[in-house]
Amino acid sequence: MIIELGHFALILAAVTALVQAIVPLIGAQMRWPGWMAVAEPAAGVQFVFTLFSFAALTYAFVTSDFSLNLVTANSHTLKPMLYKISGVWGNHEGSMLLWVLILTLFGACLAWFGGNLPPGIRARALAVQGSVAVAFFAFILFTSNPFERMEVVPFDGRDLNPLLQDVGLALHPPFLYLGYVGLSMAFSFAIAALIEGRVDAAWGRWVRPWTLAAWVFLTIGIALGSWWAYYELGWGGFWFWDPVENASFMPWLLAAALLHSAIVVEKREALKSWTILLAIMAFSFSLIGTFIVRSGVITSVHAFANDPERGVFILAILALFTGGGLTLFAARASAMEAKGVFGVVSRESALVLNNILLAVSCFVVFIGTIWPLVSEMFFDRKLSVGPPFFNMAFTPFMVLLGAILPIGAMLPWKRAKLDRVVKPLIPALVLALAIGGLAWAMQSGRSLLGPIGLFLGAWLVFGAGVDLMSRTGRGAVTERLARLGRLPRADWGKAVAHAGFGITMLGVAGLMAWEQEDIRVAQLNEPYVVGKYEITLEQVREVEGPNYLSTMADIRVRQDGREIALLHPEKRVYPVAGMPTTEAAIDYRPMRDVYLAIGDAQAGGAYTVRTYIKPLTNWIWLGSALMALGGCLSLTDRRYRVAAGARKAPKAGVPAE
Amino acid sequence: MMRGMQTLKALVLAGACVLGAAAPALAVQPDEVLADPALEERARVISKDLRCLVCRNESIDESNAQLARDLRILVRERLVAGDSNVQVVDFVVDRYGEYVLLRPRTSGTNILLYAAGPVMLLLALGMGFAYTRRRSQARSATERGLSAEEQARLSEILKE
């Protein structure tokens, strides 16, 4: 019964979305306040219906209702509760339901908290949001219905893919979707502004918090996914340039560009049409990401051809919204004249450079991702584009970005003198150069990767510190330090996020340049040495988990004769899903990880053991966390809370504009 | 989750290849490692650029599949036989086609792939510079005075 109600609620939500997409749009065009006012309750109702529908599906998973096709395919009675819940979105149908739930949540937030927006913009933005929702409701109801029943109800389910039974991966999709879908808000605002024909500083201020929130969620989602890959896949890679990873990385890059260019719109009323274009493209890349992941087209053209229904549907959604958005942009963009005037050396031009580097690097990732498809379709040349290409083509952009960031971040608006900005940065530069130089002198190889990465990371971190201090004005150092706490949250957010970017660079450079690896057949109780560490395989046991069997090793790690860790790498088999997984054991430390993975049994009770020493690895995720924290700090800045610059709602009778 | 799906596929494919074993083998096996560290190092470098053909976007260096193991052994055999790195790669490409390369060749239509980034960057820099120049030479809004719409808005505010 609850299942049918859930299905029914989903249909009602779709109908509400349809009303929300049409009525307020007409209302805004004809200036009928009654019609425009439909948008807010519709958004709320739509969210409540979708929430009910999602809750119904969750209920089915929690109570292991195997009369539901989806539950049978992705759950099992023995599975821990956490993974019964995360199983809701650990599959195609459920994840699409989560996607629309978040979409309607954002729409409802706009309706509930958007009281300070002009009614015209709000009605139009909500209508666009509604039309995106209609498209995805239709997609779910017609091609991916999660509420399909089984003809014959089985005794138990087929279990969730064991790789997905993990805390990091349970949280990864919701965050990623919050990010993807958050960008739909920027899209809706852009379309509303294009219809309205006006983009001003206030528009920049409305669109920025949504973009910032979406970017924070994307950052967390991507970092969680990458951390999961690090500890789960058994050799400690953190980024593979896989099409599905790139699908989440491209919107991240564009969202980063967008949240910077929106500052220029907000503060200086320049870069308007570019910012609108970015907002359209950022959401389009979210849709492209969905298309790539859901259609399987990049894996193989044949996978797509086997089940084209879903892929074609998403492609149609993509074409409709991207094509529609770009057409509208082409027609209306010329109406948006820039107002701000600025010199060639200024904060504005530095942000233009930031946008160029981020947008072009996104373009490079995009070309690399679709090239195998393009090449096979047009040149009949079947080839692969893998990590070696991406590392080579993408890294230079990040190096350039890191090199100019500390200077650009400190340039004043309008017109700047380069020497005045660079002067306070000189100590930071010297210190960073010294660190890079030290790394160069101490390493054995000739590779420049590590030293350059270390230099850039340190330069970014120190630069962020100098930037923050420079905001405290003049006076004694103690006075200035006291003033630090009273700086606007946006300043702190900026410094923390930029430092986080630097710390991630340090981590990536450390891991990629100085990793040590050892693969061997380890005999029981025969210590061996890797780097500074002495590793001893002491015991291998068979352990039974709630829904898996595990081969677990006890491995002792010593340094200078002193024990530093007892680690338990595992090999698991999930009998229901019939699938093995490796669970690496990691001794996390600030300066390095010791990473152990166990392999097959060998003759005489020995086992294959892989040992890695991974320098600075945790800094990758520490930096990501700082970037997300910086975004959150910025979001809590006073200027968003007091809604300064918002226009008063016009009095009754005055045409809404 | 996305990586999960992809890894799932890789594992299913890999599982189909691993002979009768349920447990995964871990990429490079101790028995494959060459005695000469210099040769082994070269083998590792080469394997990182070669694709495991039955996996999804994994190099043979990372993959657990039997086919990847065969390729790793093949690479090492060629190196022991005295081939240069380029010769080894050519040998593998002759057998398995260009698809096996994770770093696509810079020949023919692939020039488009390699040129796309730099060309786009130059274009964007040019456009960005032109835009900045235009903005620096534009007359500022304060010099131009208020537009009619702004004038109306101003009087509206003053009335309030």
UniProtKB/TrEMBL annotation, chain A:
Keyword field: Cell inner membrane, Cell membrane, Cytochrome c-type biogenesis, Membrane, Transmembrane, Transmembrane helix
Domain Cytochrome c assembly protein: 89-295
Organism domain of life: Bacteria
Ranges annotated as spanning the membrane: 6-26, 38-62, 96-113, 125-144, 175-195, 207-229, 249-265, 277-305, 311-331, 352-374, 394-413, 425-442, 448-470, 491-514
Reported function: Required for the biogenesis of c-type cytochromes. Possible subunit of a heme lyase.
PANTHER family assigned: CYTOCHROME C ASSEMBLY PROTEIN-RELATED, CYTOCHROME C-TYPE BIOGENESIS PROTEIN CCMF
The protein's name: Cytochrome c-type biogenesis protein CcmF
TrEMBL record, chain B:
Example of a GO biological process term: cytochrome complex assembly
Domain called CcmH/CycL/Ccl2/NrfF N-terminal: residue spans: 17-158
Keywords per UniProt: Cytochrome c-type biogenesis, Heme, Iron, Membrane, Metal-binding, Signal, Transmembrane, Transmembrane helix
Signal peptide: 1-27
GO cellular component terms, A-Z: plasma membrane
InterPro entries: C-type_cytochrome_biogenesis, CcmH/CycL/Ccl2/NrfF_N, CcmH/CycL/NrfF/Ccl2_sf
Sequence intervals crossing the membrane: 111-131
One GO MF term attached to the UniProt entry: metal ion binding
Pfam families: CcmH (PF03918)
Function: Possible subunit of a heme lyase.
Family to which the UniProt record says this protein belongs: Belongs to the CcmH/CycL/Ccl2/NrfF family.
PANTHER family hit by this protein: CYTOCHROME C-TYPE BIOGENESIS PROTEIN CCMH
Protein name, per record: Cytochrome c-type biogenesis protein
Gene that produces this protein: ccmH_2
